[in-house]
């Protein structure tokens, strides 16, 4: 876990100055779409989650929403870290969900089903993002 | 656009009227809408002068008190309303083989262009060679019990405008005359109360009107009611006949105006239709009809549930509702406050209350008693006690001594939330809990109980939850901020009530877990209109918006759901079924009732065969064979459960929603199970006109 966190920080630092990548192949377009999807889904979580937190409700949604949006932005910039950030949020959602509702199947459904389906999509983007990163690295070396 | 939008037209006309009237008279201070009472319209029953309390014609014993083995002669099978049948042919071993014996179509469903207000809720009765039932619009039929072939049909001509909240006819009543000899017309009669407030008696053999009853077989129950729009008052439940007296209650449309028509309970002679007495809450001691030009006291609590008659004690047990305007109690009289949401035992000779027991004090939650009470011999320590089981929407089941109304099982008055910004309407500091009976309910809601398909719609519901005022059960109403009512006004136990197997001492109940989200508003700002106002728009009714006219407030009530996905905001289950051992008052079994097959987001059926527990309306039936039958659920199925352990034995998908209590009977050696699959407009189940009847295959 600690290792992953360090990895994320490192990648964030490395990509700080990089701009958005320009998708060329279908897989890159798809990765881009997943990234946009994360941002679109993260926005309501942050907006409604902020009000919920202010009303004394759960902090999960504002935290998860922030992580998901950040993940989406990083992915748009061609960074593997974005995907890893989403997967980290998804991973932490499990203990949270179990803490809230236990092993109640109907209770777990809204908390885990959608995020897990999206996690599958995000995992599929990792090879694409890796490739993009390599190219970026090579371009940097040339420069 | 080829048609004129009537709403727009009304708005335009309303605007012109307002402009013309500006500066002349103050805005409408009271309803100016005067119409002839609907019952008189429909049947042209002539008016008669005021009548004082009368003597009842001596009665003979009715078959409902000792039903024949094969029969189901009353709405709740017997006068005790046990919904228990001694039939044994269908058992847990063979119930899985049940197949359709026949389907009968009543012909009553919305015509093209008519808004669906249908919810038949009918339970047929079976006596001898006849299956008798009413259609949702009150036509009466006799069917052959083995084939569903129509023997006769008596059309009554109820108009669409007379439909109140729902076109419902829970059932008809079988009556044996004490004056007409056997073999003659109208010795055995079918009695029915109608949506348009007529009471009718017809001959059971031929379907012909009983001329000796009222005016050519009918009486108008609008007499003495005063001003009322069609559909404002109506009868949907079968009136019990107790020692020769027909006892009549009626529903008054919820949430319209404080001075709605009266909730008066009346007695009529079952032989002649002659007026016997009235119990009019705000005219205590006066049991006559109102004098010329006067009317029964307006806005008093109405009773719409099926009542239960007790011939031995000469009582009728009236499940009382609320005063008109459910959500605001600031204008109720002390007399109303005593009887609203109570069980009242009326003496059927005089119409005077002998005792009363209140289930909710100063009810502003629409917790009216919707369930028919069931008479049982309570297994007490010193032998059986004549008891009344009173299920409630709160899920509290009270068990009372029928002789004096005293609780047999302990009742505790517990403190409840009283904080409210409706300043002129303080709440009761305590409410009664029946602590000796298992509660038909789940714990209070919390934020993490909010639900959805994804974190986003779930979050939306969590936010709704946090925005609302909620302090647990009996959260007091608030103005301009929503509050959550849980259990909701659909129950707990609603009109389906419970079934009781005296042999095993087992009580079976199906119930709801459906919170309600509502907000009191300042009415003037919202333009809400009551049903008797010319600018009233149809589509309101018991649920949804309520004008609460004559009060400072209006009401917006809705299920606590996500208005975008149409999923309920709280997590499943939304419906349960429970069996209770009345000897030990322990739960024998309990589980969610109803599958997810016909439900889903955006009202799209999921076809998932998973038991989720759906909202349900309609009662259970227990048989001596050890099977529990219940429809009720929004999966549109009829279910059979093993009475011993609750295991689902069989189910079948109905052609419409099974929001009715099933019944069972035997005919020529064969046991049948019947359910009206009429659907329910508010439950959003498909409407149909089909009575579906099941039996075991012949070779078994």
Automatic annotation (TrEMBL), chain B:
<dbReference type="Pfam" id="PF01011">
    <property type="entry name" value="PQQ"/>
</dbReference>
<feature type="region of interest" description="Disordered">
    <location>
        <begin position="419"/>
        <end position="439"/>
    </location>
</feature>
<dbReference type="GO" id="GO:0048038">
    <property type="term" value="F:quinone binding"/>
</dbReference>
<comment type="similarity">
    <text>Belongs to the bacterial PQQ dehydrogenase family.</text>
</comment>
<dbReference type="InterPro" id="IPR011047">
    <property type="entry name" value="Quinoprotein_ADH-like_sf"/>
</dbReference>
<feature type="signal peptide">
    <location>
        <begin position="1"/>
        <end position="29"/>
    </location>
</feature>
<protein>
    <submittedName>
        <fullName>Pyrroloquinoline quinone-dependent dehydrogenase</fullName>
    </submittedName>
</protein>
<dbReference type="GO" id="GO:0008876">
    <property type="term" value="F:quinoprotein glucose dehydrogenase activity"/>
</dbReference>
<dbReference type="InterPro" id="IPR018391">
    <property type="entry name" value="PQQ_b-propeller_rpt"/>
</dbReference>
<keyword id="KW-0560">Oxidoreductase</keyword>
<feature type="domain" description="Pyrrolo-quinoline quinone repeat">
    <location>
        <begin position="72"/>
        <end position="673"/>
    </location>
</feature>
<keyword id="KW-0732">Signal</keyword>
<dbReference type="InterPro" id="IPR002372">
    <property type="entry name" value="PQQ_rpt_dom"/>
</dbReference>
<dbReference type="InterPro" id="IPR017511">
    <property type="entry name" value="PQQ_mDH"/>
</dbReference>
<dbReference type="GO" id="GO:0016020">
    <property type="term" value="C:membrane"/>
</dbReference>
